Amino acid sequence: MGNTQKYCFNNFLQADPIQHGLPSFAYTDDGFFKLEAEKLFADSWVFSGFAHSLSQAGDVMPVDVAGQPVLLVRSVDDEINAFQNVCRHRCAKLVESAGNVGRMMTCPYHAWVYGLDGGLRIAPFFGGRQNRPPEGFDLKQHGLIPVRCHVWHDWIFVNLNDNAGDFEDFVAPLAARLDDIDLANLALVGVLDFGEVETNWKLLMENFMEPYHVPVVHPRTTDQPLANHKTFIDGRCLGSIVDMVDDADKATQSDNLNVSSRYLTLFPSFVLGRYFPDQLGVYLNEPVAPGITRQYRAIYLTNGEQPSVETAEHLKKLWYDVHKEDHGVCERLQRGRAAPIAEEGGFLSPYWEDCVRRFQELVVEGVQ
Asked: Looking at the domain assignment, is residue 58 inside a domain?
């Protein structure tokens, strides 16, 4: 068990009729947060960015994945690749902010130059005043370290340690629930940047997948009766389903969310919401610290048509309001973890929160 020996899951693992949730240290402890990074996230396909953010050759996007600096790059061949965002010379962070670098990336410390393919082009004066490489130093052998990367429609996934299985197998259970949508025909409405939310990444995931809170937390922004919901567990794809009577035109026109929906997550951290008849939302949750998560939401229409300015602003406002309701309760969940009783993990509804339980089991399995 290694570093997990200091973390006790006995209460979580015991077979009570009503099962407990994860103990509070899983949401508050720095060591556990690092353990998740080293084991759970490094071994997984992790959603790390949006392809639309890298639309032109030379576009770069620095991201943090499991605490490691990663660089996403659009190449001259119109492919998105990922590298460790570190110069091979003295390990300075190569790219600090998103933008377009043209055809080359230059380290700000000693001006080593890399192509968009990660290859080292120039190491100026590394071998002395003659500006030649030192004997035995081959530029071709010292390019940026690649990171395994897969682009699925508008969504970029990376696997840090190359231990994750085939991406197609990973995404299959979620893709099967979207097989009637032409995902290549999505129209981006906009992206909401929520900045840092003062809660653990798992609480945002758990809140999204369970429907138990919906009528309590969202009485103003959502009109989806709890009785219309059901949860599902399909391998690493977890979430809930709500079926309403009539979805025609409601997704983009209503003042609240009152349509059939699919709340889909793919462990560990991919989140996709489908809202009939014509809307998708994808969340990017970036763990920053045990009690801080940076969150974005991209809004799409599935009919391929660009919405009017009025419709786009309406959807952004609706989803901003829904998210802020969720953020408020998730931040209260985080603050509640400071109470001694939270060490027992609370209780999970065997009917409404079975998907949350499975998510938490996958977390425990992932850090072993």
From this structure: yes
pLDDT for position 2: 47
CB contact at 8 A, 114 and 120:
yes
pLDDT per position as a tens digit, 157-189: 999 999 999 999 999 999 999 999 999 999 999
Nearest residue to 336 (alpha-carbon basis) of 207, 204, 199: 199
Classified as helix, coil or strand, 71 is strand
* C-alpha radius of gyration, the chain, whole number: 22
CA distances from residue 312 to 12, 136, 299, 307 in whole angstroms, order as listed: 44, 58, 9, 6
| Cis upstream peptide for 268 (omega within 30°) | yes
Three-class DSSP category at 178: helix
Pick from 211, 233, 232: nearest CA to 222 = 211
Q: Which structural domain range is residue 243 located in?
A: 2-24+181-367
Q: Let me know whether 56 and 112 are in one domain.
A: yes
Residue 199 is classified by DSSP as: S
Cα distance between residue 270 and residue 201, in whole Å? 11
Query: Do both 303 and 342 map to the same domain?
Result: yes
Q: Which of 107, 368, 346, 34 is nearest to 206 (CA)?
A: 346
Residue 56 tokens, joined: 């032109």
Burial (CB count <10 Å: 0-12, 13-18, 19+), residue 55:
exposed
Interatomic CA distance for residues 245 and 233, integer angstroms: 24
